[in-house]
Amino acid sequence: MAKKLGLALVHYPVLDRAKSTVATNVTNFDIHDIARASRTYGVDTYYIVHPSDEQLMFVSRVLDHWRVGPGQKFNPMRKTALGMVEPVTSIEAAMRHMDSDDLQVIATSAKETPETPQLSWRQARQAVEDRDTLLVFGTGFGLSQEALDLCQSCIEPIRGFGEEDYRHLSVRSAVSIVLDRVRGSW
Predict the structure, then answer these.
(1) Secondary structure letter of residue 83 according to DSSP
(2) What are the residue boundaries of the structural domains of the chain, listed by start?
(3) What pLDDT is recorded for position 110?
(4) CATH topology for the 5-183 domain
(5) Are the C-beta atoms of residues 133 and 103 closer than 8 Å to each other?
(6) What is the value of pTM for the model shown?
(7) How far apart are CA 118 and CA 12, in angstroms?
(8) CB-based contacts of 44: which residues, under 8 Å, 6+ apart?
């Protein structure tokens, strides 16, 4: 039996360029594109994490348009993907919503996280197969230490091609790569 897989896109607490803890804005693209990738790879619930009521109302308005408004007839496939989206105020709220007695919380990061145990891609794939999992992605310049402290481990960074080791993907791209590596059919 497949284990539950949740995905949290965290807008707070995350870092800005100066490494200060901030809240970032939710984007329409992240709502849609990550929901579609999540649906493709069997994610049970995609959580959009933000403490601001205004930002969560924005998410709810977008979801309502596609779930029950005119968008449901315009693009039924989008309605299907967006059906799994759940706006929540915190990572802890997402953890509670998953309602699992055996939940592991695994972070992702473009940089090394020496304070958090690292998983190789192979270990991450096995972990997702073995236990209910919440995969946590940060916006801005990544998850703050406060967010990382809620995670038992962190998947090694995605590394590109060449010596430059450029690691500044959009979160949408990173989500797709991570989901393919931990849930893909390869």
Answers:
(1) T
(2) 5-183
(3) 94
(4) Alpha/beta knot (3.40.1280)
(5) yes
(6) 0.95
(7) 22
(8) 4, 5, 6, 84, 98
